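User: Predict the complex with iron/sulfur cluster.
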Amino acid sequence: MAQTASMQHSEISAIDADAVLDWYDRHARDLPWRVSPADRARGVKPNPYFVWLSEIMLQQTTIAAVRKYFAAFTRLWPTVQDLAAAPLDDVLVQWAGLGYYARARNLHACATAVVVHHGGVFPTTAAALRDLPGIGDYTSSAIAAICHDERVAVVDGNVDRVIARYLALSKPVREEKPLVRATVQNAVPGRAGDFAQAMMDLGATICAPRRANCLLCPLEPDCRGTKTGNPVAFPVPPAKAEKPRRHGHAFVIRHPDGKVFLRQRGPKGMLAKMTETPGSAWGDVESVVSLPFSGDWRAVGEVNHTFTHFHLTLTVWSITADNPLDEGWWAEETMLDSEALPSLFRKVLKTAGIR
Ligand code: SF4
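Assistant: Here is the predicted structure with iron/sulfur cluster placed in the model:
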């Protein structure tokens, strides 16, 4: 396949930003946090709170999954001031299911910082935005470009893929980040926000992970990937490191009156402060179960779950008993939706026949 990794910038076909914007003007996706290119041209400004919230939610999650969370958050907390004033526990409950809970805590910390240090107004430059909790290079660039047309490169996973194909990179994208970034940066036009969103949309709809609809693509005339005849061979995948598997036990204690015993996880580490069913520590090897108290425990199944860095298998044990453990609470089954239960523990409860 294709080009050398030592491709010089002078060899790179520049991206035709006008063609990209022309395509975006006709095909921009309609998203609840987005101002359409037509409205943008009429002077309508994007709401930085909405853009920030959507970008944080979209990290490693799809738009389809984010829509309902975005709707719920903006209904409960229409402004950054409202979100900052909300109890963290309420934010965690609403976030449950989106994963990456450190992000929810940072979300709340960031809203607080915007209110306390910036009078409730998000900073307008990427550099200033980067000082806020949970806002890194990508998110700061996205907000500054989309809301204020700062001419910065906005490179998410979709854009990585588009550029890897456009340049027919022979190495994995993560080894060619500076080149990808420079290629985008060199192209950023005055309509920086629309261009950023256009490139994201191209990656999401035309130059998609498993298919490339090159005939509809504004980058087609200069795209090296399409000229190879097999553009989806790019980006070249990185060598895969095998994810380790961890093991543990989960204990579902059902009160005779139907309530379920839950507790809060510790303040540090995985899923910190979220709600869980009691359970063992997670280890690298399967351990003999140490049940929290004696009784008629039954092994009711296994739950498999994948985190970013490891797979987890939990053996689920269930009992009907009224023994509470030291710390925790009895939760009504009908109220489980309002508990900050991550998907892992919802799976555990389901395996025990609860909801
Ligand atoms: S021409 Fe094809 S491979 Fe190249 S960027 Fe467009 S959709 Fe992707």
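The longest helix spans residues 101-118.
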